[in-house]
Amino acid sequence: MQLGFTRFIKLLLQNLFIQTSWSFTTLQGMGFLANILSGAREDKKELILNNHKGFFNTHPYMSAYIVGAVTRLYDEGKKSPDEIKHFIAIAQTSLASSGDLLFWETIRPSLLIIAVILSLKFGLWGIFGFIIPYNILHLYHRITGILDGYRLGPDIIYLLNSARFKKVQQVFEIVGAIAAGLLILLVQWKNNSLILIPLIPLFISMFIYRLPATFYTISIILIVIIFALL
Amino acid sequence: MNPVLMSFLGGLFILDKYAIGEFGLSQPIIAGTILGAIFGEPKTGIMLGAVIQLIFLGGLPIGRDIPPDAQGAGIVGVGTYLFLKNLNPQDSSLFLAIVLALTAALAGGAMEIYTRRLNEKLYHQFLRKKAHLYLFHYLGLGTAYIRGFILFFAYFIFARYFIIPGQFLKLNPQLLLIIGIGAGIANGCYLFIKKRTLIFFIVGGLCSLALLVL
């Protein structure tokens, strides 16, 4: 069974818009429906439209795996819509936590620290230290997500144990740790630089105690005001 | 440079936050640098973008949680500074720009809630007219863009005409960078430091110190 180039491109392009109509009721629901319809066979469209109008939420890049697998399941026509919905319910949760951990908590912040260091040290071109590697990885998951999803169908969730998730996460945790240490390089050491020493534990304690983001933001405003008064 | 053009560009950047692709172009260090370069101040864009990026490095958009709008803050920070410094001293412009950026992070987060409620209405419209799925889905681009435009225009129009009083607070760029580095290291420690990665953080720190000495 073949996906075909035209259908693959339609699914990929539509996948870039999966969060466009993000709402509290269905989160990415409308985006997911639009995505699977974009690559569905004409005779299946009505069935899909009537069965996938509700809630959907996963990591946006990882959604490609589910889109590919669901397209395969409708092409085969062996599973009922309820069985497909059951697969989606399981897969979206597993891929959401893997994607959040891999991209939001590891790859993105580690590469952003690198971009900050490169930009402050070398100027304008430093931003490519983020844009290029991040989007290679991001688009790799979108592209292979659709292709592997279509190839493997519901077995796609077993890919979560593969190197593309586990190894890459471990590598970027190391990259992030080194980059966080390298931030010290940006300090221009003068007397007032010593103020950095109490600031770091103060911020870390806010994160450890999981204080609300609003509290954190207001605290930074107060710190800025105190620094301006010094 | 005028507030409408800057807000128009800011609105385009903010679409990358979640409405199109999420290529990371709306991140403060990226959008700040590009906006700074477009308006002839790349160094300012990099510095403010870097500080706001480091402050909000750990703001994770997980599930229904809406963190402060770091992307909006980056654009507001760079944009307001560029407008403010036309009529005001640089140090007090910097102070006001960073405070405005941080308030924009909070305001942007609150506005995102309204955007999602508007998108809910689009969803209910779709349920009534199923044939128009793509129309109602892509109208989400409009709600995301308008949210960004309104947020930026309000801040930029204020910054364009505001005259800072003579005895207003002033902020040294170096001190601002210290706050950013402090928040960045704290965020980095929180996100990356585990038993097996601690050694790499220490290696990074020692490399920094060695490079500083050299």
Write up what this structure looks like.
- The complex is a heterodimer of chains A (230) and B (214).
- Chain A is mainly α.
- Chain A has 2 domains: 5-186, no CATH class; 188-230.
- Chain A is built from 9 helices and no strands.
- Chain A has helices at residues 5-15, 29-38, 45-51, 63-76, 81-122, 128-152, 166-182, 196-208, 213-229.
- In chain A, helix 5 packs antiparallel against helix 6 and helix 5 (81-122) runs parallel beside helix 7.
- The radius of gyration of chain A is 22 Å and the shape is elongated.
- Chain A starts with a helix and ends with a helix.
- The model of chain A has no long low-confidence stretch (mean pLDDT 93).
- With 214 residues, chain B is mainly α.
- Chain B has one domain (3-213).
- Chain B is 76% helix and 0% strand.
- Chain B has helices at 3-18, 28-38, 42-55, 70-87, 90-128, 133-161, 173-192, 198-213.
- In chain B, helix 1 packs across helix 6, helix 2 (28-38) packs parallel to helix 4 (70-87) and helix 4 crosses helix 5.
- The model of chain B has no long low-confidence stretch (mean pLDDT 93).
- Chains A and B meet through helix 2, helix 5, helix 6, helix 7 and helix 8 of A and helix 2, helix 3, helix 5, helix 6 and helix 7 of B.
- Chain A: It comes from candidate division WOR-3 bacterium 4484_100.
- Chain A: This is PTS mannose transporter subunit IID.
- Chain A: Keywords: Membrane, Transmembrane, Transmembrane helix.
- Chain A: InterPro entries: PTS_IID_man.
- Chain A: The chain crosses the membrane at residues 110-132, 171-189, 195-228.
